[in-house]
Amino acid sequence: MTPDEVAGRLRSGMTIGIGGWGSRRKPMALVRALLRSDVTDLTVISYGGPDVGLLAAAGKIRKLVAAFATLDSIPLEPHFRAARQRGDFELTELDESMFMWGLTAATHRLPFLPVRAGLGSDVMRVNPELRTVTSPYADGEELVAVPALRMDAALVHVNRADARGNGQYLGPDPYFDDLFCDAATDAYVSCERIVPSTEFTAAGAPQTLLVGRQSVTGVVETPNGAHFTSCVPDYGRDEPFQAAYAKAAADPDAWREFTARFLSGDEDTYQAAVAAFAEEGA
Question: What is the pTM of this model?
Answer without folding.
Answer: 0.96
